[in-house]
Batch of 2 targets.
Target 1
Amino acid sequence: MKSLLEYVGIEPGRLHFSWISSAEATKFQETVVEVTESVKALGPAKHMIKDIRKVA
Amino acid sequence: MSDNSQYQPRIAAFLCNWCSYGAADLAGVSRLQYPPNIHVIRIPCTGRMSPKFILQAFRQGVDGVWVSG
Amino acid sequence: MEAVAQKIRETAAKLLSEGKVDCVIGYAQGTVPMRDYPYFAYTPEEAQNLTWSPFCCNNLANFLIRRPKGEIGKVAIVAQGCVSRSIVGLIKENQIAREDVYILGVPSPGMVDRRKVQDRFPLKTITEVTVDGEDLVVKGKDFEERIPQKEVRRDNCYTCVQRNPVIVDEMMGEEGPSDWGGNIDAVAAPWEKLEPGERWEAFIDEVDSCIRCYACRDACPLCYCHVCFVDEAMPQWCGKTQDEADVATFHILRAFHCAGRCTDCGACESACPQGIKVRRFTSKIEKDIRELYDYSPGMDLEATPPLSVYRPNDPQEFIK
């Protein structure tokens, strides 16, 4: 899925997958920081959003 | 929105009930600080995840999607 | 070509009169040139309408499924390489039973893209197209021209890897060479060459003319869900408008649903009334499946589809 979305032009940093066990609170916290930073760096999403104002 | 340092992204986080959701719970109990930008959606298992969810999240305007098992 | 068509007619008539099958699914000549259409022969007389030509662009495997149970018993089907691969896929997915289909195998001549032929005669009406050896003879009101078939084939036929059927009950002609020599990996996923920033624009540009008629879905033998995700209303995954987001969602998800199953028969592209190159999406996914799992769908009845089984060595670089 990630590879296809990249193919059509969604930035790779917008979609993340990870595997965290329920005992890994620190890993969870680290991943949240990482994901947030990565999305922050990309700025607001520009594609795929259904803009009701444009449609209606 | 124009100022990047002020920009706060919205991230949809699909967390497995048994793994990452538990980790999130533990992170809370352990008083670990993490950014408030994630909006957690609890799913019964990552097997419940569907590509539809990801696209639907993007359609509704999130800036990022995070799937975690 | 005509010899194959004759053999199909004879065999179909024989099977129907002996009562071995209830119906023979094949092609009949269309009323418009280069438009041979799927044909269902129920009697030996009807079997005489069957034909075989480079204009048989549908994937007949599509008609084996989505039928009310018990409506028709055993059917015979005319199948070239890609159609037989679709049949293998459907058997694996338990949509049809092997013993219910009788496969009349034909080596594929490579199908002609009618748009490519029409493009050579802008603003002219083609009234008749016949096959003469390796050439097509195109006739109109005040012109007649020969075109080599190999210049106007469908894109997917150039890179075909399996012209001969993979499973067969009776062959309708000599097995030909197995492929056309094109390298699918070289042309698959054309947008990979683009910069990430340009891809979205190219993608939207391609699907911009989409009218959401779902012809690509209906032509596809893989799309047999009773309720397609585009028709679901609660929740609505994909809106019904021609808005950029809706069209993008439809094309991404349609392609994704074919992951590890698409046999590159090209029926979707032939069916598209707007001429959208819908194979640009599926070819990317199939390329990934070949690279990640070393798997080509429909080639082997025994092989397990990679996305339905877990193997410890499955690639998982995308997971952190």
Target 2
Amino acid sequence: MTEAILTMTGIGKEFPGVKALSEVDFRLLPGEVHALMGENGAGKSTLIKVLTGVYDIDQGSIVLDGRPVEFSGPLQAQHAGISTVYQEINLCPNLSVAENIFIGREPRLLGHIRWSTVERRASELLRRLQLDIDVSAMLGTYSIAVQQMVAIARAIDISAKVLILDEPTSSLDAGEVGQLFRVMRQLKDEGIAILFVTHFLDQVYEIADRITVLRNGRRVGEYRTAELTLIDLIGKMIGKELEVLERLEDRPKRAQEGDVPLVDARELGRKGAVAPFSLTIHKGEVVGLAGLLGSGRTEVARLLYGADRADHGQLAVDGRAVTMRGPRSAMAKNIAFCSENRRTEGLIEELTVRENIVLAMQATRGWTRPIPRRRQDELVDRYIKALDIRPANPDAPVRDLSGGNQQKVLLARWLITEPRLLILDEPTRGIDIGAKAEIQRLVAQLSDGGMAVLFVSAELEEVLRLSHKVAVLRDRHLIAELPNDDTLDVDRVMETIASGAKP
Amino acid sequence: MTTFAEVRSRLAGTRQRRYLPLYATLALLALMYGSGVVQYEAFSDPQVVLNVFIDNGFLLVVAVGMTFVILTGGIDLSVGAVVALTTMVSATLLEGQGWPAFAVLPLVLLMGATLGFGMGCIIHYFEIQPFIVTLAGMFLARGLCYTIGTSSITIDEPFWTTMAQSKVRFGDNFISPSVVIALVVVLVAAYVLAFTRLGRNTYAIGGNPRSAHLMGLPVARTRIGVYTISGFCSALGGVLLSFYMLSGNSLHAVGMELDAIAAVVIGGTLLTGGSGFVLGTVLGVLVLGIIQTLITFDGRLSSWWTKIVIGALLFAFILLQRLITPRKQ
Amino acid sequence: MNTLVKHRLFWPVAMLVALLLSNLAFTPSFFSVEVRDGHLYGSLIDIVRFGAPLIMVALGMTLVIATGGIDLSVGSVVAICGALACWRISEQGDQNSVAGVLVAVALALGLALLLGAWNGFLVAVVGIQPIIATLILMVAGRGLAQLITDGQIITVNSSPYKLIGGGYLFTVPFAILVALAVTALAVLLTRRTALGMLIESVGGNAEASRLAGIHSRRITLMAYIVAGLCAGIAGLMISSNVSSADGNNAGLWYELDAILAVVIGGTSLAGGRFSIAGTVVGALLIQTLTTTIYTTGIPPETTLLFKALVVTVVCLVQSPAFRAKVFKGRRRRPSAPPAGPAAATTEKVEVPA
């Protein structure tokens, strides 16, 4: 077996309140494509950032090419031979392709940049990657795939021992992915070690030689791709949750038949986000969305709320067709949405708990009809108590609250508007176990009270515990709708994800 | 706004879009010059165009400095005040203190560059918006002017008067030495932007500062550098203005920052940074100059129409920029 | 005591008080206010009276800045509105006709509203950066003002018009009453309705506000309209006080003073939380600075130097980067990523939860 070019041993990294990585081992061989897999918060990006020196390392050591190393930043890492290409392209769209490859290290004569040499060498380099394009054209005029290739060309021209590709395929279509894979294979044959991060399972099996799986900041294991079945991989990524969550007693598995569904989506879709899907949600029903990261879970939620506009299909509420022009049309139909990104799409961090809670209700009333202070106090106090928000101070800036309490504030914002459909996108991500159980109990209560809930979560156990019906997504397609009867368990959902062919 | 979005996406796809504003400016200039020639017989005299250069040489130099700053996505509001300060300090040193010209010149140029350097450092290291930092710089420079003196100081130092009165002749026509200096500045700036790392880094920062940092480009040095260049150009512009006016005055160049910004924008440089040419800025200054000349030739229109027309052109070009830039995520 | 020092208005108020007290050393009668011929007189009254137009402009600017924008055109709007009102009055036969003056005032304010709406349209609907969008009117507006006055300084001789900026009502200068009324109105409008909270929400996080169902475009548009209207009132005050309109110089650099007042008052240029009381204190501070420089015999030319100093200090104190760099010895952050400024801020967001 060949000697590893990169070895990371016992890596630990802690952020205030969170242990992001503990005791992680990782190795990379020359001439291999090695996939790093894991769900949100598993520690993939932290591991890459520790490796490239974006974060300081708390514990453990890194050995590159036989020598121990520690980098102070991505630049230093790059000079040592580790280059990273991110999903969002870190190049300048306003400069030419050639210039993007050579900027900062242009061939010069007495300070004068020799553009003809720059362009000739850029052409040669790209032709090696089987890319024949006009290198004098602006980078921004090319597709994301070509830009990605240019980024790779720059990276390998600077130093070419280890190439990290961080979710490079997220915004590429099938043809473009093929093009990228051809280049990756060629680089692999030249002896470059490639660390490949993606959440597309098919792609892992198509290109990766080995797989390292992380979960909750720990290494689950390292496997040869050929020896790991898809279902095992999914199991290792998701894990069988052994958390001691309280059992939700006698959860009635209700099946609503016959009556008009509250929300009825027919072939609803949006180009580049999610393929057309059909889904019905009834009053008092909890519908779970299962699927891996990037499978289109969030996109489905956003379309139903009108956060993004659908460009395909119809949506009916109470049997009447509606056009979602934006969040306000959804709110008019009593649909509420808690985004997975609490901080960027949910809370206004500068404002207080009280203001954040009344915000949506105020928005529907318009600015001229403020909610009377007494009513505000009453509502806010009631929900601070009901959801046990701490500190129980309505005038504390919401920024100072912990993740779980922030999530409860966001929930309270929507609950006071008395929605008929509540869309929850990853409401339990990144919050402590106590708060998690509370939120789960709340969802059960709400649905018993007649509210419909669309529950999106990466944790299958959680989805199964709460939902009456589970819609399964994979690679941006809704592939199955499973009633949550006694036969449904985590294994069957995983099988569905693993076997589900694109329709 | 569907139609707006459609037009936008169509334009944003064009390969040659970075030259589009430049062509627009060129067409505008040709149109304005043509209409001048058709309407007024005297307009066809080449000296009319040369006079535009003579009357706007200092603005050209200041606008070139501004081009560097705007290319990085910044803005420099202090230029007018630095111009005034330069005329004031030069006049005081020459006339009040009796300093020789060869000592005054480097001193005022160094002063302008230092002011720019200081502002650049604050902008970069303390992450304060360029707009507010250069606003403070503007207050500072104007304030220093007023502290030196509030009345106009006439300059009759021999070097200055020579520069003011001599003419560089070719045939029947002539330009002032200041125009030669301004054109040299333009050529040097165009070379620096196109063929040196400093210039290319300027574009890179304007295109995407985060990428520039990750690609290992010297962001700090470049960003501070462009404000230093702008400060230097303002000081040089101030020197040229004092050649032109033969006086130092605290009230010189009030509002010149707006003219300079307008020239840069009309010249096709994106206010968000990353795209534009010094040549465009030259065209922009010419547009401003020709508008003034046309209004003077007309005789019926009053001088304030200049501002209204400039405002309208600014609007048109900003709208054009908005149409051709792809939406940033 | 500690909570007092931490109050967001503590430092501006302290600076204002210190500045006022320092005047006492030069002018012992500085704080005396007396009634002469049925009119209030005194240095303090003068500060508020001359500061009234700035308070007006700064109030509007506060709302615009709170939405995360900026309005550079207010100085030009000041000039345009003064010019329009004076031109209209000078055109009418009897300059003292109250009805005529009312029409002129209504016209001017109507135009101010329109100009504000234009800025708001460019920012909220077309989506141009605020600083660039309002630059257009800043440049063209001066020309428009001169177009109205025909390049002249229009002088009017109208006692009803004179009342607005230079007259007295119930012994109090009318301008002060107007400033008080508009400030009270602004407080009512933003704090008694939900407007204030919605503006802060839009300025604090535009995308989250959209997802919470707020009409952020409408709110932004409204802020620019209010800013235009406030600048219009200031334009009337200024031209009325001197009974003339000067298209070129009226309201020159007002936008900068107004921004300064807002920033001193503790409203961040990044948008979000705003304080109307803070802005009023800021505007008064700037006016007191000017007055102090006159009364203490420091050459008035140095006013700008002091302003430069104040801007720099206030901005540095507000800058997180400055605080982090200067006070980093006191609070150690655990392993802050050493990457550059842009990288550092993003990393903070991405810390896994």
